[in-house]
Amino acid sequence: MDNPTISSLLEQSTIEKSAVENLDEISTALSPFPQSLSSPNPLQDRGIIMQAFFSADKNLDDLAEFQLLAESAQVEIATIITTSRATPQAKYFIGQGKAEEIAQAVKDHNANVILVNHCLTPAQTRNLESLCECRVVDRTGLILDIFAQRARSHEGKLQVELAQLKHLATRLVRRKTDLDQQKGAVGLRGPGETQLESDRRLIKVRLAQLQNRLNKVEKQRNQNRQTRKKADIPTISLVGYTNAGKSTLFNLLTNAEVYAADQLFATLDPTLRRLSIPNIGTTILVDTVGFIRDLPHDLVSAFKSTLQETTEASLLLHVVDCADARKEENIHAVNEVLQEINADQVPTLLVYNKIDQVENLAPHIEYDEQNRPVAVYISAHLQQGITLLFDAIRQKLSKSIVQLQLCLPPQAGKIRHWLYEMDCIREEKISEQGEFLLKVNIEQSEWQKLLKKQPHLSDYVSK
């Protein structure tokens, strides 16, 4: 590049910094009021929540959930302003009068941020910021900011920065100062590259860098999954609405120390642990990020490699907060995300958690017409129904597991070696004639593959 300052800024840009900090360093012309809530002292953020209702039935539950999101971002809520409209307005999303009311409330409450429980266009955001003279953050920006605060692992920071950059790239505006870059020799000088064009180019470069790093992470994850497949180790993935109790259940089952708290998106980074299940053997349990309504598409795209663990899982444990009045809507919201990432065909077991908060509800398993488990009711906090959960998981996984007793002759050592490589031998004895008496638990698909390689293998199966 011709500009040494820009080159040095790109070299100094590291993953330990958030996307917003990187954009500041490379002179991004966002607007006079940055989109991020991050500040040296998050408690200084004092916000006004704005909610518009577009139907006669005012859904106050959505508003309550957005308040929890604001609290998760460590914003002090000064007041809540609501309005009813038939359709959004093009300029301010809300009406002119209501926008002026919000501007006055900003002055009265000395607020420094407006949180809007909707997805705003870049133009609507800028118009509200100009009128109210403070930052305006929509629902997508708020969720991205929470993720930026919670990311701890290298991969998590990469994914969050990628999602933030994609979101902020559409919100660049040209600064009012003269920042055109003049380049060229005699006879070739001109207005050159504007600051806005330079910012867009630098963001494009940074996006490419992040995507390349994430591709390497995804490749490594794929290698790990292939290794588990070769070893015939089933993967169980925890999914569910945010704050349903996934991390608490994960800690209980695996004796892990994943951070768990009564807040939205308490944990972000995926965690894998070994879990032993009776009659199944070793499995891998995966704790994933919680879902929420209207989860930003940029976030889903950025977390593709993480969510791939869900797509490739042998079983999904869909954790549901049964004490939540909107549990059915939450289930639907999670199913929509699963469908978006092509994980809706993976076998699923509903796990209704927090039964201790519901009267007259004891731990039990629900079965369908074919006597297959479809739901388990437990309390991870009080450790109730965990044995039933293990039993239901065993039944779900054993549907694809074949339990066989093989009697291999001494000369069939190669087959015995294959079975040991697949880690599917549960017990072995040697008869007086030197035969290998094996008890084998193997997936149906893997057994069929072995039969294709060695058709006479079926002759060794004990009746």
UniProtKB/TrEMBL annotation:
<dbReference type="InterPro" id="IPR016496">
    <property type="entry name" value="GTPase_HflX"/>
</dbReference>
<keyword id="KW-0479">Metal-binding</keyword>
<dbReference type="InterPro" id="IPR032305">
    <property type="entry name" value="GTP-bd_M"/>
</dbReference>
<keyword id="KW-0460">Magnesium</keyword>
<feature type="binding site">
    <location>
        <position position="267"/>
    </location>
    <ligand>
        <name>Mg(2+)</name>
    </ligand>
</feature>
<dbReference type="Pfam" id="PF16360">
    <property type="entry name" value="GTP-bdg_M"/>
</dbReference>
<dbReference type="Pfam" id="PF01926">
    <property type="entry name" value="MMR_HSR1"/>
</dbReference>
<dbReference type="GO" id="GO:0046872">
    <property type="term" value="F:metal ion binding"/>
</dbReference>
<dbReference type="GO" id="GO:0003924">
    <property type="term" value="F:GTPase activity"/>
</dbReference>
<dbReference type="Pfam" id="PF19275">
    <property type="entry name" value="HflX_C"/>
</dbReference>
<keyword id="KW-0547">Nucleotide-binding</keyword>
<dbReference type="GO" id="GO:0043022">
    <property type="term" value="F:ribosome binding"/>
</dbReference>
<feature type="binding site">
    <location>
        <begin position="240"/>
        <end position="247"/>
    </location>
    <ligand>
        <name>GTP</name>
    </ligand>
</feature>
<feature type="binding site">
    <location>
        <begin position="353"/>
        <end position="356"/>
    </location>
    <ligand>
        <name>GTP</name>
    </ligand>
</feature>
<protein>
    <recommendedName>
        <fullName>GTPase HflX</fullName>
    </recommendedName>
</protein>
<feature type="binding site">
    <location>
        <begin position="379"/>
        <end position="381"/>
    </location>
    <ligand>
        <name>GTP</name>
    </ligand>
</feature>
<feature type="domain" description="Hflx-type G">
    <location>
        <begin position="234"/>
        <end position="401"/>
    </location>
</feature>
<dbReference type="InterPro" id="IPR025121">
    <property type="entry name" value="GTPase_HflX_N"/>
</dbReference>
<dbReference type="InterPro" id="IPR030394">
    <property type="entry name" value="G_HFLX_dom"/>
</dbReference>
<dbReference type="GO" id="GO:0005525">
    <property type="term" value="F:GTP binding"/>
</dbReference>
<feature type="binding site">
    <location>
        <begin position="287"/>
        <end position="290"/>
    </location>
    <ligand>
        <name>GTP</name>
    </ligand>
</feature>
<dbReference type="InterPro" id="IPR045498">
    <property type="entry name" value="HflX_C"/>
</dbReference>
<dbReference type="GO" id="GO:0005737">
    <property type="term" value="C:cytoplasm"/>
</dbReference>
<feature type="binding site">
    <location>
        <position position="247"/>
    </location>
    <ligand>
        <name>Mg(2+)</name>
    </ligand>
</feature>
<dbReference type="InterPro" id="IPR027417">
    <property type="entry name" value="P-loop_NTPase"/>
</dbReference>
<feature type="binding site">
    <location>
        <begin position="265"/>
        <end position="269"/>
    </location>
    <ligand>
        <name>GTP</name>
    </ligand>
</feature>
<dbReference type="InterPro" id="IPR035647">
    <property type="entry name" value="EFG_III/V"/>
</dbReference>
<comment type="subunit">
    <text>Monomer. Associates with the 50S ribosomal subunit.</text>
</comment>
<dbReference type="InterPro" id="IPR006073">
    <property type="entry name" value="GTP-bd"/>
</dbReference>
<dbReference type="GO" id="GO:0097216">
    <property type="term" value="F:guanosine tetraphosphate binding"/>
</dbReference>
<dbReference type="Pfam" id="PF13167">
    <property type="entry name" value="GTP-bdg_N"/>
</dbReference>
<comment type="similarity">
    <text>Belongs to the TRAFAC class OBG-HflX-like GTPase superfamily. HflX GTPase family.</text>
</comment>
<comment type="function">
    <text>GTPase that associates with the 50S ribosomal subunit and may have a role during protein synthesis or ribosome biogenesis.</text>
</comment>
<keyword id="KW-0342">GTP-binding</keyword>
<keyword id="KW-0175">Coiled coil</keyword>
<feature type="coiled-coil region">
    <location>
        <begin position="200"/>
        <end position="230"/>
    </location>
</feature>
<dbReference type="InterPro" id="IPR042108">
    <property type="entry name" value="GTPase_HflX_N_sf"/>
</dbReference>
<keyword id="KW-0963">Cytoplasm</keyword>
